[in-house]
Request: fold
Amino acid sequence: MPKKIGYDVTDPALADAGRLKIEWAGRSMPVLKLIEARFSEEKPLKSIVIGACLHVTAETANLVLALTAGGAQIALCASNPLSTQDDVVASLVTHYKIPVYARKGEDRKTYYSHLNAVLDTHPGITMDDGADLVTLLHTTRRSQIREIIGSSEETTTGVIRLKAMAREKALRIPVFAVNDSDTKHLFDNRYGTGQSTLDGIMRATNMLLAGKKFVVAGYGWCGRGLAARARGMGSHVIVTEVDPVKALEAVMDGFTVMRMKDAVRTGDIFVTVTGNKDVITVEHIRRMKDGAVIANSGHFNVEIAVEELARIARKTRRIRDAVTEYLMPGGKRIYVLGEGRLINLAAAEGHAPDVMDMSFANQALAAEFFVKNQGRLPVRVITISPRMDRQIARLKLAAMGVRTDRLTRAQHKYLTSWQEGT
Ligand code: ADE
Reply:
């Protein structure tokens, strides 16, 4: 290695497999590749230190390569203890000399030591998926706040945390809500989560989804995507939702909507995607059918009462890699997938690169935006301009070979005037 870098990797011998995986994912990320090509020429991130806390996947590796092409020095850690792809870490460290601190299955102490190792590099820009780096910066590492140009946030849960910080006037740095871009949540959250969650459940269990009663908790973009895909697999989909508008939408989308306390009596498979805690409690689980399967695809492992379940269970055993069986006091057996953590990343590979392409195009452009506007940015949660959002969509359509109509001059005028009526 030409340069000595810090890292924590499970098995360097996986590097070659990781490199192929990164290359394969990159083939489905054309928008990010266009940005990478421009970054290579223009070097907009020259000498910028970026600290990233993201799921360490082949798709994230491609983002890292684009940022590096732009001149950034980047250190990376995992945003979830179970989402890391160890072969990708090995390749990033061995072939690309990127300091990566991530091991699949790391414990909480290691997880935080990795976040701290990334902050030890003194980043000017941070990238989060869940707001853990920003939270550290605002709690135990406050002295580094003045070094931060800006921070970008990938996911709904992280944006919710950041908006709460801003409301309480605790936020001290400009943050870019990547999740709020249309080219992010309409695709990554909906089609990405929809497909990768089913992928995780199928890889974990090898169950047939056709004919099953599939309960989706939460009808945000992730829930909408998941419900649609589960229906496509032949499941009878039941939705639980607290927001009346979203619940009504689910009804009119043709799903059965009910309370969780009613759904638990009939469901075969339960998946939480609410972003909130205590969605499936032990009381709910006690009422479930023998053999019920429970998984979570929300950001944090707070949606299902896994710890309490372990406390009341008569016996617990790992029956497959990502499946834990709980023998309940009355004799029923309940199965929890991926320890209640993001099942799409814990048991599968996360979202397909085709959608991460747009999410990470947003991340790359956010980094460039921070550098271009350094010192002029408001300390609040900011979002992408509609012009930039549409530009990303246009590039994606072009890469997919899809051509679309443009407004004529007369149509544009009609849409921006009021005189023409009945
Ligand atoms: N979040 C969901 N899927 C992901 C992926 N494949 N890579 C990075 N972050 C993700």
Observations:
- The CA atoms of residues 219 and 245 lie 10 Å apart.
- The pocket of adenine is lined by residues 54-55, 57, 59-60, 192, 350-351, 356 (CB under 6 Å).
- The chain is about 45% helix and 15% strand.
